[in-house]
Fold this sequence. Notes:
369 residues, Rossmann fold, alpha/beta
Amino acid sequence: MTDPASLVVIGTGGLARAIAYALAVIPQPIRVTVLGRDPARAAEICYVSSARAATSGTPAEFRPVAVDLTCADALTDALVAAAPAGVVLAASSQSPWESRTSPSEWTALVQRVGFGLTLPFQADSALRVGRALAATGGDSWFVNACFPDAVNPVLSAAGVPVLCGIGNAGLLAASLQAELGLPDQRELRVLAHHVHLYSPPSPADEALAWHGDQPLTHVSALLAAQRAAQRAELNHVTGLTAARLLSGLLAGAEIDTNLPGPLGLPGGYPVRLARGRLDLRLPPGMDRAEAVAFNQRAALRDGVVVDGERITFGPAAREELARLAPEIADGFPVADLAPAGEVLGRLRDRLRDLASEQDLPSLHPVTRL
């Protein structure tokens, strides 16, 4: 009997849970190791996943491993022990749910200037995991779920191999697939950035999509249901799309889909995966440079642009940072991400402690995305 394929899922939050729970019901032999800081949360995910697999009659196995994700050696040792074919990261030091669970002047600032402000906090775990995976000496692939539209270009600039991301463009594509009644995404091409999870300020800024070779002219209407849904509920869609992608990667299947951060590119693109190789499948008349330029314009609206080896913030973020953290307001090289993250971390700590916007008169009135 063939040994089950080995996969590591890093994280114990909502998205990691959704991925594990979806993997549990896919009829494919798979051994999943869930790595997390909290042993109780990792064990809980594995219990629920194992129970779902048993009830579904699927040959999936789940094993929890507690590990300090900030310790490179411990992380490398855990990956060596798991010997995975692939690793998916769904953990960062900045929760996307903080504005709902612990609103503060920090979350208000992020909502005003764009999620891109949190890039250093999204990238630190991805860099650590990618480097630990490389240190194992194996040939495992790496899929990053933490703001891959901007983090994957950082990984690429830092020389850390990453295959692609999940979520964002993948969620938008799944939503379009459902609305169009398509059996798969072979005829669906989507060019979209994380910022397109929300309605754009102008129709000219909307995500682009094609059915076959024909551009879709009513993308906003097709995405209305997804944009009206509660964000936590969307994890159930992203988790399933991620599980199907991971299952296909483990099986060496050919997959036509749409993903964020493929090949370390900014934003999301239509792609083809075959036997671990990934290629863009852009619509007729559009080349790679045009597709990247579209996503970089969207990245600017999201608050951060990664262009080669330099990170710059959008206009709103630059204006705020010029008062609050001037040393990073004009951007910084990817190589300086860690010290920039320390500066931003001190600002985050200070703003989290503020009880109201009146405590920081330099900030603008709070607006909501």
